[in-house]
Design brief:
alpha+beta; elongated
């Protein structure tokens, strides 16, 4: 026997080893084997002493084996004649043991048998496969080289992994697999270890025949001859590419958990905490050592009160995520709100083995929600109070006007008093608008900020309710202001030649979103009348059409329709021609006795009051605007059939339209402004200050925001901090904002700084006044967050 296998096999405490010489009959058929060598494990596995076997025949030495047993077929056919190895199982009756054998011929007429005792593991197919994979069918690559590292043997797995066939690999150096990713020093250390006669273990990032990179975990063993000289090297290598990728992914995931801003904890099935991340330690105040091993109170409580927490356990046991809010206590005793998400972790048998809890500190959000609720309640109270005052004021004015008009002598006095009262009413409405817009700024502003963040479905619905209610109140405020301006004669109009077709299409675009939920279709029958023009203010004409279309959609039936028509009305004298715009719906209709109430402010038809939310001002404003345009509005309706509203306006018969070839440039999307600088905000209302501060913190963190709550010492403050932009409220405690603008524009050192007014005063005369004084822009409260951000980004 060549002793070059001694180091590999002889010292193996598990595997038996025997080296034989074949005995042939006269026909050249092997009929017996003579033991030449064996290891100690052979004696242990068979129970036969070595001295009883050396130079003895197999048939003579091992009971139960004769020249007719099937073992000779395996050896004859699979090894000698086939010039290959064979793996098989054999049961020795005399020893009452099963053996798994691997037999091959290292040289002519000689055999090597490597075997294990598989008696106890016979029923386990996996164990047999482990031995099968040891050589040819192993999932690990097996490579044997000579002393010069030239490959003399590779197994099947080597070919599968590398792409090189046995023939291609034989005679080559293993460096054909090198990828160039390892340093020269890495390979020097490998050879230093092997040349010292030691086993080297490590990993290679190698390259396949097709150029693909892969990871291998390798163990390389030097094989010695009888003189202790290295004659071969044996490499056992396993493709660990998937494991390396998994380790890399696991590392990423572990970092996500460890570095997550949310608290994360993992418990076992007894609810004992096994892991907490750094955020848990930072937020709760407990160290990992203090908290690991303790029971998670939420799960412990849910288990103790299982009947009360049926829904909780039903969600978790179904594999879904449970979420909820709770109050917990930090180590220092401080109470705080948590948003908790708990999900079960399943093993490969689909059994729950752990619970993972992800916890967010939502204390700040809870405070803002409470503040919003308070603001909403206060706003509703103010609206109710101001509406009641307005009603009483109108009633009083009507009575006064009727009493003072009883005789002609008192007519002039009555007119003067009415104008005075009207001015008082306008002033009252203006102040009401200011008082309501200020809290509306906080409500809609914070609600918009919330809608931009991550919310649960319940929270998102709540925020939508707040925004919808706020927008409704804002619409009411604007419509009350419009009515006031019209009644006071201060409503400005810009009358010009207006294309009817364009105005209708613009109004249709504005109301289209309202048609989606009720599935109402809206269509325009143009009848090729593109060239119809009227004498009107285009903005106000669109407002009239939108108000009527709004009602046509709101009070329509599910799946109903709205049709718009135009008609040219020609008089006999061909003078004073008109254009009639018809808006026809298939809605619920209006009772005849309610038709005269349609255009009265705050009056609504009896059959509409419980159907849809509205202010009762839309049609009254439309009627007043049509009157100012020297037109007429009227309606026809039938219950359960629908309504038709008609707007009649003076026609312009000859219109010269200018056609230009100017290009329409498409604006490219602007990147978020990242420049730095200081912004000064002059405001005395804490809610408004808090809103602007949060907008800057979340959306423009690179900008520095400073506050000033009065109108005094403004110039000194600006010279000290040198802001590049000033945000200014007008209604300040000790001075009106217009005075501040005047002083800044008169100062050589401050006149260049842009000023943006943010005020609840939405009257047109105030806006014009501030623009004349030199402010760059005027935003009315409540602000639109996106519009506000776009405005400050201009500077």
């Amino acid at each position: 026997m060549q002793k070059d296998y001694r180091q590999l096999i002889f010292d193996n405490p598990i595997t038996g080893f025997a080296y034989y010489r074949a005995v042939f009959d006269d026909m050249g058929k092997p009929v017996d084997l003579v033991f030449l060598e064996m290891n100690e494990t052979f004696e242990k596995l068979t129970g036969i002493p070595r001295k009883e076997l050396i130079n003895k025949s197999l048939v003579a030495a091992v009971p139960g084996i004769d020249r007719d047993t099937p073992i000779w077929d395996a050896i004859n056919k699979e090894v000698l004649l086939g010039d290959t190895s064979n793996i098989f199982e054999y049961y020795v009756q005399a020893l009452k043991k099963w053996y798994g054998l691997y037999i091959f011929s290292p040289e002519k007429n000689h055999y090597i048998a490597i075997f294990t005792d598989i008696t106890e593991q016979k029923k386990s197919i996996d164990l047999l496969r482990k031995y099968e994979v040891a050589i040819e069918q192993s999932p690990a690559s097996v490579v044997i080289t000579d002393v010069d590292a030239n490959i003399i043997y590779t197994n099947k797995r080597f070919t599968e992994i590398t792409g090189y066939t046995k023939e291609e690999a034989k005679g080559q150096n293993p460096r054909i697999l090198q990828s160039g990713e390892h340093s020269r020093e890495y390979y020097d250390n490998l050879w230093k270890t092997l040349l010292l006669g030691k086993v080297w273990s490590g990993e290679f990032l190698n390259k396949k025949k097709n150029g693909e990179l892969f990871w291998e975990e390798a163990t390389i063993t030097p094989i010695f001859n009888e003189k202790g000289k290295i004659v071969n090297y044996l490499a056992l290598k396993e493709d660990v590419t998937k494991r390396k990728l998994a380790e890399k992914q696991l590392y990423k995931l572990s970092k996500v958990v460890e570095q997550s801003p949310n608290m994360i904890l993992i418990t076992n099935l007894d609810f004992e905490i096994e892991f907490v991340n750094d955020s848990f330690v930072e937020i709760s105040g407990y160290s990992a050592k203090e908290i690991v091993g303790r029971q998670f109170k939420l799960l412990k409580l849910a288990k103790a009160n299982e009947d009360e927490y049926k829904k909780f356990w039903k969600i978790l046991n179904s594999g879904r995520v449970w979420s909820g809010e709770r109050v917990d206590k930090r180590k220092n005793g401080e109470l705080y709100w948590q948003q908790v998400f708990i999900n079960p972790v399943f093993d490969e048998n689909n059994r729950i083995v752990n619970y993972v809890a992800t916890i967010q500190d939502i204390s700040d959000r809870k405070k803002v929600e409470e503040r919003l609720q308070e603001l909403n309640v206060n706003l509703e109270q103010k609206v109710a109070e101001r509406t009641s005052e307005l009603s009483l004021t109108n009633e009083f004015l009507m009575r006064e006007m009727i009493n003072r008009k009883r005789n002609e002598a008192e007519l002039k006095i009555a007119r003067d008093e009415a104008e005075k009262s009207n001015r008082a009413k306008s002033e009252f409405i203006s102040r009401m608008s200011h008082e309501l817009r200020t809290p509306m700024n906080s409500i809609l502003g914070f609600a918009q900020l919330f809608s931009m963040g991550t919310l649960t479905e319940t929270q998102r619905k709540g925020v939508e309710h707040i925004m919808n209610s706020g927008k409704h109140l804002l619409k009411l405020i604007n419509e009350v202001l419009d009515i006031s301006k019209i009644e006071s004669g201060k409503f400005s109009m810009s009358v010009e030649e207006v294309n009817v077709n364009e105005s209708i299409l613009e109004a249709m675009d504005l109301v289209y979103p309202l048609t989606i939920l009720p599935q109402v279709t809206i269509q325009y029958e143009t009848r090729n009348q593109d060239e119809l023009f009227v004498k009107a203010d285009k903005q106000r004409l669109v407002q009239i059409l939108v108000n009527i279309l709004n009602n046509a959609i709101k009070y329509n039936k599910q799946g109903g329709s709205v049709t718009i028509t135009t008609k040219y009305e020609k008089t006999a004298e061909e003078l004073d021609d008109n254009v009639i715009i018809g808006i026809h719906d298939t809605g619920i209709g209006i009772a005849e006795e309610d038709l005269e109430k349609l255009f009265v402010p705050f009056e609504r038809s009896a059959n509409l009051k419980t159907q849809v939310e509205g202010t009762g001002l839309g049609l009254s404003i439309a009627k007043e605007l049509v009157s100012l345009l020297h037109g007429e509005i009227y309606v026809e309706s039938q219950i359960d059939v629908g309504s038709s509203f008609y707007v009649k306006l003076p026609h312009v018969r000859y219109v010269k339209r200018k056609i230009t070839n100017s290009e329409h440039l498409k604006a490219s999307d602007k990147e978020v402004i990242t420049s730095t600088g200081t912004v000064l905000y002059i405001e005395d209302n804490n809610s408004n200050i808090e809103l602007i501060e949060q907008i800057f913190t979340v959306h423009r963190p690179n900008l520095s925001l400073i506050f000033h709550k009065s109108g005094s010492d403004v110039v000194d403050l600006i010279l000290k901090h040198e802001p590049y932009l000033i945000l200014l409220d007008l209604d300040l405690p000790n001075v009106h904002g217009s005075k501040i603008v005047q002083s800044l524009k008169e100062n050589e050192q401050t006149r260049h700084i842009p000023i943006v007014v943010i005020s609840a005063d939405a009257t047109s005369h105030q806006i014009r006044k501030m623009i004349r004084l030199g402010v760059n822009s005027y935003l009315t409260k409540p602000i639109d967050v996106q519009e506000f951000l776009a405005e400050i980004d201009k500077y």
